[in-house]
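Box 3.1 — From sequence to structure: MFS general substrate transporter
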Amino acid sequence: MTMAPVRIVGRTKKHNLGSLQLRHVDSNQIILIPTPTNDPNDPLNWSGRYRWYIAILVSAAIFFCNFLAAGPTVVMTQITADFFGAPPENANFVADISKASYFFTTTALMQGMGALLWMPLIVKYGRRPVYVSSFVLYTICAAWAGGSRSYGSELASRIIMGVAAGAAEVLAPLTISDIFFLHERGTVMAIYTCALSAGASGGIIISGLISIKNDWRVIYWVATALIGACTILVIFTFPETIYLRDESSTASADIVIPEKRSYISSLRICSGTYTQESVFKLFIRPVILLILPPVFWATLVMSGTIGFLVAITSNFAVAFEETYDFQPWQSGLCFLAALIGAFIGIFVGGHFGDWVADIQTQRNGGVREPEMRLPVILVSVITAPLALVLYGVGISYRLHWICPTVGLALINFSIVQATNISLVYTIDCYRPVAGEITVTQMGFKSAVGFLLSFYTNPWVQKSGYLNAYGAMAGISAALLIPSLLFFFWGKAIRNASWHWGPIRRFVHWDDDREVGE
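Predicted structure (token representation):
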């Protein structure tokens, strides 16, 4: 018989906002946080291989979602010609390209808005029902978009696709936080942020290669097969990962250890309600969280770094064609550099960040503060502006194509490295509301990306590549440098801001949201 989630009531826990004893004072051994229970259904007791399988699966899912979100942009002219007609018969072809771009800009916007809509359901009713429903919906929309023959139908499919993809963006960080210990999360989260960035780059590369001898619709058929495979794996191998735990559950001898759920029972779509918080509070919290300085800064970091990549992808095909006379597939292959940069970012933003934080933890008597991983972000203070300068200078002065291509590598490196550190930092600070934290950043990122996708081309036409991307470089540095402020004074800032009026009313969470951290 499937057991519904049971909350073991214990004492009310004081909010520590990420300040935790991570290493034993005497032995210096790592303390497992959260503390695993004796329950075999506790995700922290699952085998390491199974937990890594889930992490890879959710990362692959977000990769394939972004694959289709950005990949077809490399064949924008073909898509425009299919729906509006090709020149010289179509005298308004250039203007129609802007209309066709709505297929992708609206998807990007709805990814953020979709995350906001899915979040209350994810927190209240669990991860699995949203995983299953959103991925089934995404697969349907991918096939729909590939088969659409009218502009309105294609646009509708892409809008709903964005809503479905929004669930994947926010579910992955939550799932990783559910099944990995605090000291493991940096590296695993870096793989997720790499997949988030590499999805767009990989999609552009593969879409470009597909377009050499195939119609652009084949891109959608390939994506449908890949996403459909992920959906099948989610349905049959992905259990509920949320687990209600309390400090008293590991200390009491009176706790009855339940039996391990059977495989069939783990496939149950809905398994109960996981919080008594109202849907309204769950919906409004991501907006109010922006008042908290650490969240606001981390949101700007994600919005800026990913937003500037959106700026590049919105006109790279035109830029490389005009400057280097590249075909779409050749322009797409330049994004191999972006993939390399993203993979390097996994180490520098993940394992290296954990290592730096661990050294400071040992020097601090075993106490971990969320700010201890922030010094590593200084690498991106250099690489992010440099990336945008190389891209702008390379295109503007028609330097060798390797110059803007190195820029693509560095901007993707910076996205994985800086975004992972800033996102994990805020999750460490406010772990019980990790989902709402992620929605705040993803939603704002999508809005910024939506605006940049519209205004990059006019900005470049008015100011030129050199000035436009030079300005972006300055902005990116300005967004990343405040990491020093939070490294030195972040603890005082988060403790003081925690008592602000709107934060007390809308952000403070109920006891049933506690996760043992």
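Summary of the box: Strands lie at 20-21, 367-368.
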